[in-house]
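Running log. JK asked me to keep both predictions on one page so they can be read side by side. First protein, sequence followed by its tokens:
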Amino acid sequence: MKTAITPTRSENFSEWYQNLITAADLAENAPVRGCMTIKPYGWAIWELMRDALDQRIKRCGVQNAQFPLLIPINFFNREAEHVAGFAKEAAVVTHYRLKMIDGTLQPDPDAKLTEPYVIRPTSETIIGEAMSRWVQSYRDLPMKLNQWVNVMRWEMRPRLFLRTSEFYWQEGHNVFATHDDANADARKMHRVYGDYMRDVLAIPSIMGEKTPEERFAGADHTYTLEHIMQDGRALQAGTSHDLGQHFAKSFSIQFLDTDGVLKHAWTTSWGVSTRMMGSLFMTHSDDDGLVLPPAVAPYQVVIIPITRDDTSEQLNSFAEQLGERLINAGIRVLVDTSDMRTPDKMWKWIKRGVPLRVEIGAREMDENNVTVTRRDLGKSSKQTMATDAFVSDVQNMLNQIQQDMYDAVVRRNKTMIHDVADLDALESGLSDGKIGFFRIKYDLTTNEQFNKLVEKYKISRRCLDDADPTYVFVAKSY
């Protein structure tokens, strides 16, 4: 069977993913090594994802703010454990102007900064410094801040949306008077992410705490959301960290408590990034292109008038009137009246993952009908229905697509989670080519035998099982 994306997922999943990004016109590699240019259609998806999450974050009492891109290097030196986690990825600004030397612009040797700046890989340090000034009393707590920004972590093996040197994210940073409050908040934001990914991205998450070996540098606890890709690999989609008092002590975030005693605060941080887009695309898409949940589809419905020279004006007008009715009903719609060939239009929107494709020919127009196809189900879902009935039912159809896409991933994931009794069984599954997550007793993964499997099969501990933290999930990952 002919497919739009070659090779197919089963033939070469990695290459399929790269070609999917191109076919759906989402992004491209930038001239800057390791960076990407997100194209308009890709950015429209990100905006919908961002706005939906931003609403949920604000409902938690969090306020958005904006902090500098450049961070003084001495801020990192004040938190040794944290900086050790990012030192190899740091991009550093050392000069403040360029100069023409031997016919080319180069950093001016006389313009070297007294103290270099680090382009933010994350903002705990600079936000911590601000909080040390903003927090004075128990009345200032809790303080809940978030920013939507770009960050830089020098990436040696870039892959669009999954690992790029520059990426976009939100990072939340909260301060509390007690450790119980801080830990409860870290867990709360973890759940907020899980609900968002379920309801908006139609992706079920494996949620749990990172093991000590895998937790965020400088954190007491890291709570993660792991997604299972169609090739069985894990993708970390988001994290929430209980930072204890590490940053509060490093940056003197102190408050005068109700008992009149000056105390160090407790902080958390939490973030998700454009990496979620990679998870979205790899979780749902097929060999014909992107498949988007309606909640994050830039166009939930595309209307394609199938015109001939003698009917084009009437058909286009009919299609545009239908488009207006759908827009008035709150649906994101595009009426494609371009001069592309009809088959090319159809393939364009199939590859871009539009949830509902509506075709209108002369017969449909005469009978006041539309022919509707669901992207997630393909040709088997094609049906002709009255225009009025479609307008009345379109939101229900989109809701059903959203739910069906989630349920399909749940069913697939169940086939890719394997309980193993010991390390020999784990190795047997890996050597046999079994894909997915392996659930095993955590204490079995703390010896040299497991370390050898990590090296041989490139696996890692993804997270402890929330239902029983004596178990850990192990998988290959992106």
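And the second, directly underneath as requested:
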Amino acid sequence: MKSRLRKISYVVIPILLLGVFFIVGLYIGFQNSPSSKKVTSVFNKESSVVAETDFASFWKVWNLIDEKHPAADSVSDLDRVYGAIGGLVDSLDDPYSVFFSPEEAKAFAENINGQFGGVGIEIGLKDNILTVIAPLKDTPAYNSGIQSGDKIIKIDDMVTSDVTIERAVTLIRGEIGTDVMLTIFRDGEDEPLEFTLTRAIINIPTIETEQLDDNIFLIRLFSFSTSSPELFRDSLQEFIDSNSDKLILDLRGNPGGFLEASIDIASWFLPSGKIVVTEAPGTEGSVTMYRSKGYDIFTDELQFVVLIDSGSASASEILAGALQQHDIATLVGTATFGKGSVQELIDITSDTSLKITIAEWLTPDGTSISESGLAPDIEVMLTREDIEAERDLQLDKAIELLTSGALKK
């Protein structure tokens, strides 16, 4: 079974028959093994393998573990194989390509199906550091004051320097009503911050609307779920009914979601056939361009600002990039997270799987989202003092642009 994960993003690394590579390599290495002490057979071998690969050193380490390590008998051969496959995937240096052992595969399935208690944060790797992309509104993380860009250095007593994203998610989630402690490093703070959060059922919010002064209409989009296109359509109807031509779309703190939702939303503003995003594969396959469905209901009278920040990721970056580069909207705020790759989930055995990066997202002009995210047209920084005083200078700038007529075409 194969399923494409469209809730996404990151670098392009090809996959070439993982199980074939590994198992047959073991067989070849065994033929040159310096010791025949433990390993006596290799099965399920395939004929395709890079002949130059020498697994003699692998078998030497395997046998030395058996001979010398006091805990060798407590680790099964199968667990060692899982560890070796995990190391093989780690060699790609791609935090979003991960091998799932049976326990991890089960946890990942529960994650996708929403069967968990959590604290309400989307996390990713930024400069190889576990980083908060965004806290979700009205969740334990949001209400405790965790912010986009916070670096998670410990989960309970576990230091996160070598922890994968999936492992971190597993550690943070757990039984509803139990606590988890996150130790955070935040720019501008001299000492790490500690947050004790109580796990809860997480209901991810989707959208809010608000009529501001000066006949400005505000849509806050919190995630790109399966229901987002319909809810966004309803919000646009509210905007149209308000007889306004001034629109603000707030994508700050929106960690993304489904690709299809971002394409549908972009289609309300783009003519049919305009590129929303391009999927660029690795060494194999062809480029796929996702284009507007052409709802395109607005005229040049529309004055449109999109708010972005470091918590805007994935589908948020796809939508904002399309609106910016087709000259539909002006981006205000700070640079986005830079989460722009595509993963595929592949079953390896009945209870293990591989999540592998197969492509990256490019904006309409061919810019990689993963490299540095999107830069705003007008940068407006928020200081710690602004946040504490609940001053929203980014929203204020958007209102200023719309009321001054600076965005009229």
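Observation for JK regarding the second prediction: Residues 42 and 238 are 65 Å apart (CA to CA).
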